[in-house]
Design a protein that fits this description.
about 80 residues, mainly alpha, 434 Repressor (Amino-terminal Domain), two-stranded antiparallel sheet, globular
Length: about 80
């Protein structure tokens, strides 16, 4: 289960642009207000939770995830062969 750090400020901005309260967003997403609060507080959440929030906010997942955290999890280590 992949977990990502939310970009809380971006989520608040997008929610405000849609003129939604935390409660209204929670109903759209199907998660509790506490989960919305966690996302807006830049907590680390399951990728699937953030995907649902992104859909409700009409944006992509990368729009609401901390960029540094995406870079951290998208890095694939190079294969290291033998060494002397």
């Amino acid at each position: 289960m992949q977990r990502l750090r939310a970009n809380g400020q971006k989520i608040v901005t997008l929610r405000d642009e849609l003129d939604l309260t935390q409660e209204e967003l929670s109903v759209r997403v199907g998660y509790s207000v506490k989960t919305i609060w966690k996302a807006e507080s830049s907590r680390v959440l399951r990728r699937r939770t953030l995907e649902h929030i992104a859909i409700a906010l009409n944006c992509s997942l990368t729009d609401i995830v901390d960029a540094a955290h995406i870079a951290l999890y998208s890095h694939k280590p190079a294969l290291v062969l033998g060494g002397d």
